[in-house]
Amino acid sequence: MSAVPLSLRRLDTGSASFEGDLRALIAFEAAQDPAIDTTVAGIVADVCVRGDAAVLDYTKRFDRVDAQSVASLEIAATDMRDAFVGLASAERNALAVAASRIRAYHERQKSGDWCHQDPDGSELGQRVTALDRAGIYVPGGKAAYPSSVLMNAIPANVAGVGEIIMVVPAPDGIRNPLVLAAAHVAGVTRTFTIGGAQAVAALAYGTQTIPAVDKICGPGNAYVAAAKRRVFGVVGIDMVAGASEILVIADATANPDWVALDLFAQAEHDELAQALLLSPDAGLLDRVDASAQRLLAEMPRATIIAAAFARRGALIKTRDLAEACAVANRVAPEHLELAVTDPDALLPQIRHAGAIFIGHYSSESLGDYCAGSNHVLPTGRTARFSSPLGVYDFQKRSNVLRLTQAAAQTLGPIAATLARGEGLFAHARAAEARIACRQK
């Protein structure tokens, strides 16, 4: 039995101190540690200049792998296939089913070209094209994250990305077969066993062996996040991931054990994770508290869960479910569960959330692994203005204009007037040149 104490903070929206308490609870300092940023700046600059040689030096230093060439750190496609074939049947089936559902979900996100014709015959439209090459960062070390491989690589594959380059650290040269098998299932093109800021820099700038990509996606530690910030602009990035978050809105019909376990599922990620429960039913809060105290003893990561609750967790009493939704919108959580009798009545009131899980059976854990939707979600209140990772992150859109002579004569004076108002006379002359004269 675990002896780890669990302190569950209680808040009440009716309290005079609630506003200040909530601000303090959801405040999260996302600024980069200056020491980390300085270290990463040196690594990125070194990889940019020395390429493979720098990658080899940092791989030896941080992963304790003394490789003779970066080419020796590349995993052959046959090795990834063999890793899949060599899995136990249960793991192989789980990967296959999850990948199939994730692929089916993201296939529905595809948006095609379109074109609209004006009465004068002019055409305005859009072309959608995939990125040429995407980079996928997968965390390594003690933990293995095959789900991250599926969630990042499959949308890129569905979007039609030409090449998907995966990097994953392999400390002490230990390669995780489940991660390699997931890469095989997800359609990864090439995989290199490198990690950290040096891997991000190699993907962004390219080396003698590792090709430069157009966009880098995938989570990592503080050094990886700092490196993604630093190379943004040279390449695109998905987002800078923060600590995991869950907010559950529940009524008296919720199963307290299920709610407690769903809160634990995010809290066990790390000590900075956030787990919040909102309910107008004080009895439900009491029952979840009791369940959490009892179930913590069964959790291998009890110490991390308890630390996360102590820092950023709370059980919050609201006046009603409508107020719970209003508070949830202020928090803008990564994961939001509606564990209530009539979740569809609340759904229209939710404006800001990375993923919304509707009903008692919709555990966020299913979304993390195999429901099909993407688990790469906005954190740190960024759900107010950003979206989950999807096919659209690996596509770009080009405006297409085919203007007739009639359109040029109609629109030319308008463009010229606006251009002169901005002091851009060449713009004005270019528009006016087409007003009266046909092309010679």
Q: Could you explain how this protein is built, in words?
A:
- With 440 residues, this protein is of the alpha/beta class.
- The protein has 3 domains: 10-29 and 242-371, Rossmann fold, CATH 3.40.50.1980; 34-237, Nitrogenase molybdenum iron protein domain (Rossmann fold), CATH 3.40.50; 403-432, no CATH class.
- The chain is 44% helix and 15% strand.
- The protein has 17 helices and 15 strands.
- The protein has helices at residues 18-26, 34-50, 52-63, 77-85, 89-107, 146-159, 177-186, 196-205, 222-231, 256-267, 282-295, 302-312, 321-331, 343-346, 364-369, 405-421, 425-432; strands at residues 10-12, 74-75, 114-117, 123-130, 133-137, 163-167, 190-192, 215-217, 236-237, 245-250, 274-279, 314-317, 335-339, 355-358, 395-402.
- Strands 1-12-11-10-13-14 form a 6-stranded parallel sheet, sandwiched between helices.
- Strand 10 (245-250), helix 10 (256-267) and strand 11 form a beta-alpha-beta unit.
- Helix 2 packs across helix 3, helix 2 (34-50) crosses helix 8 and helix 4 (77-85) crosses helix 7.
- The mean pLDDT is 94.
